[in-house]
Amino acid sequence: MSRITLSNLAHSYLPKPKTPADYALKEMDHVWQDGGAYALLGASGCGKTTLLNIISGLLRPSQGRVLFGETDVTDAPTAARNIAQVFQFPVVYDTMTVRENLAFPLRNRGRDAAYIAARVDQIAAMIGMEAMLDRKARGLTADAKQKISLGRGMVREDVNAILFDEPLTVIDPHMKWELRTQLKQLHREFGHTMIYVTHDQTEALTFADKVVVMHEGRVVQTGTPEELFETPEHTFVGYFIGSPGMNLFEAEVEGNMARVMGHPVPLSASYPAARGRVQIGIRPEFVQLADEGLPAIITRVEDVGRHRILRGEAFGQPVNLLLPEEIPAAPGPAFLRLAPEKINVYADDWRVLPVGARRAA
Amino acid sequence: MKRPGSALVMVLYLLFLLIPIYWLVNMSFKTNAEITRSFTLFPHDLTFQNYRTILTDPSWYMGYVNSLTYVVLNTAISITVALPAAYAFSRYRFLGDKHLFFWLLTNRMAPPAVFALPFFQLYSSVGLFDTHIAVALAHCLFNVPLAVWILEGFMSGVPKEIDETAYIDGYSFPRFFVKIFMPLIASGIGVAAFFCFMFSWVELLLSRTLTSVNAKPIAATMTRTVSASGLDWGVLAAAGVLTLIPGGLVIWFVRNYIAKGFALGRV
Amino acid sequence: MEKSWNNRAWFLVLPVLALVAFSAVVPLMTVVNYSVQDTFGNNEFFWAGLEWFEETVTSERIHAALGRQVLFTAIILAIEVPLGIFVALHMPKKGFWASLCLILMAMPLLIPFNVVGTIWQIFGRVDIGLLGRTLTALGIDYNYTNDWLDAWVTVIVMDVWHWTSLVALLCYAGLQSIPEAYYQAAKIDQASRWAVFRYIELPKMRGVLLIAVLLRFMDSFMIYTEPFVVTGGGPGNSTTFLSIDLVKMAIGQFDLGPAAAFSIIYFLVILLISWVFYTVMTNLDREDRP
């Protein structure tokens, strides 16, 4: 097991990429700590799978290096990297029994039979397929097959990392939750580095200690679920994480005061003069109804159990509020108060640090 | 190609396929004197006379017209009758469906040699002997079952919900079939047509038996000329080369579907 | 797919039924009719019972032709199926080279049968053919018109040339349907090249392979034109396969009765073997569905 370092990495599927748009993965440096449980979160087509395949060696990056510990493995084949990977759609060897499927990666590495038998039983118990061990894999349901794929991914104990590429897409919702819990438990037990690709924020936030958010071929933020929630480094993170996503208003910022179409909005800290397109962002949780503030029109009130989502419009932009159930709310004109300490300032989509503040590592 | 070993295998295999064809093409551009008297790997005395002979003599070139006529007729008939039948097999269960399907396939298994004589008598007795339609109908024997089989494979890949949605939207069956369903299985129709064309084009036993003069296929014209003036190798080779061309053209049009097509839509 | 029960679907099948009945049932009835009658010319027929059938099943000439036929079919299947798989595994997967290979490989399949015969007849001739000339120059005594072994080799190589591409294209189609993730998973699992073939590629090709074997079996069992053009069934009777024998009997000697009985038995044999294939295939299909 070892730390995985991506240095100066970029990838393009074209033979001679010219513009940045030709790159599926834009230049990046990133370190996956040994034993971390990571989620790689992003919309479809943002380069998550490309990144995963580069780590496992199925793809060779157009530029940059991949290091396992101190060893450069950029040109090493998949087999030499000792990585396990589970794919989005079930991959099972149809003509083998479930048992043979689970034993396959161990057999190929020449482990002895007694060890294999014991290990297969252990994994079968974990994925709940003890009863089906001697059935042919052909003809099983999609989620049974995917469980076998997961099992094959976890059967080797000595892997450098286990990579999951949206592994629960085809699984029933209640099974999803159970399997995710088992994966977490497995992580606690064996301490493998795990990288879990998903486009589902709930999945990412419940599985991972650290979430890596990707957008258009770039890692835009790496952080704990709280960090992603409190201080999104990029407007995409604000919008993609949280439900509903962060509210954004075009603004001018001067010192500790922002102006949205001339309406003053106090901030909790002083900001340097920002260039480009300046926006302020705030989570719907921290917007309240008030007697004065930003004028808005509430168009819809949705009751979602213990909360209400108020949807409306301010200065032609959609705006959302998340209010506890006991606060009365009705469609119509309203004023919004934004909690100053929860406001983030963005210039050209990237977060601007307040004067004197340092970026969290 | 990334693996040099694979490239070598393919080059060797393609050479094996192409060298005999090359030899035929090579001969077609030679004079008979060069063919019989010297042994040359390419024509030293390049001539187009063999092709000129064929393209100016109606008894030769009408052979191509005849062949193409019955092949196209056969393809049109086969596809037209196979489409509704394939739809029935892919969508409904009905009395005797499985037996009927198997019975249809058995006709693909019937040796043409078995049918040669009875066909001759049948078509003579109804006055169709030596007509294009006779050959086209005879070839339906093996092409219709094949077309049904291929089309059924492609149609089964189209979800039934599409039919149901169309009926709910008020489409009548014929309108639905032509406007919505046929475009969906266009590649299947192309593949089925390709196979009908292919098997009708390459078949000789039945087409020769059922024709004498007016609908005589090019392939049969070739055999007669060989036996009559056994030494005219150049013209024979040129005629052979010209029979490759329609096949080549058809392959070009369906090249993207060839692989799936040869699996009869069952991949 | 769940199919609904609907007997009106018969109307959709009627055109096919009428057409195939016209071109199959009527001629077959003629055949059956001949097979139980005898004639002394002048279109006068007499009931002959099962005499012709007895003659057919006991005829040494037909036994010999059947033996040659079975041997021929077995040999070409044994060569074409493995070779076809081998070629399919080495075909480029996509792009210009893949299209080129597909087009070139499909070429032999679209050549009229007798032209295939003509090509090999010329190619193998010792006086004007590249193959015959080359072999002779190498000091090999090769002449397919005199020597039965040379004739067999020529006919078999011709069939391999003609039809291996069909097997290869079918297998290629099967291989194309394997998602990339299977190969990636195999790499992750450190599977050997053989294991990839054995556990991923072969199972995916099984369905199309059965189609290939079925088609090659049927067509090689009915082969007529190609060997007839090259060898005329000779030297002697050494390449007289069932269809060649049948045509000789029916059209050459006009022995309608025996030829008809022969036809029926011939057809039934193919039918029986094909039915076995068909049953196996559909059963495997069913097993595939959960």
UniProtKB/TrEMBL annotation, chain B:
Transmembrane segments: 7-25, 68-89, 101-120, 132-155, 176-202, 233-254
Entry-linked Pfam families: BPD_transp_1
Gene3D superfamilies: MetI-like
GO BP: transmembrane transport
PROSITE patterns for this protein: ABC_TM1
Main location: membrane
Recorded topology in the membrane: Multi-pass membrane protein
UniProt keywords, alphabetically: Cell membrane, Membrane, Transmembrane, Transmembrane helix, Transport
SUPFAM superfamilies xrefs: MetI-like
Subcellular localization(s) per the UniProt record: Cell membrane
Domain ABC transmembrane type-1: 64-254
Entry superkingdom: Bacteria
Family: Belongs to the binding-protein-dependent transport system permease family.
PANTHER family referenced in this protein's UniProt entry, alphabetically: ABC TRANSPORTER PERMEASE PROTEIN (PTHR32243:SF52), MALTOSE TRANSPORT SYSTEM PERMEASE-RELATED (PTHR32243)
Official protein name in the record: Carbohydrate ABC transporter permease
Annotated organism of origin: Cereibacter sphaeroides (Rhodobacter sphaeroides)
From TrEMBL, chain C:
Keywords assigned: Membrane, Transmembrane, Transmembrane helix, Transport
Transmembrane segments: 70-89, 96-123, 151-175, 207-225, 259-280
Coiled-coil blocks: none
PROSITE patterns: ABC_TM1 (PS50928)
Family (UniProt): Belongs to the binding-protein-dependent transport system permease family.
Ranges where the ABC transmembrane type-1 domain occurs: 66-277
Name of the protein in question: Carbohydrate ABC transporter membrane protein 1 (CUT1 family)
Organism placement in taxonomy: Bacteria, Pseudomonadati, Pseudomonadota, Alphaproteobacteria, Rhodobacterales
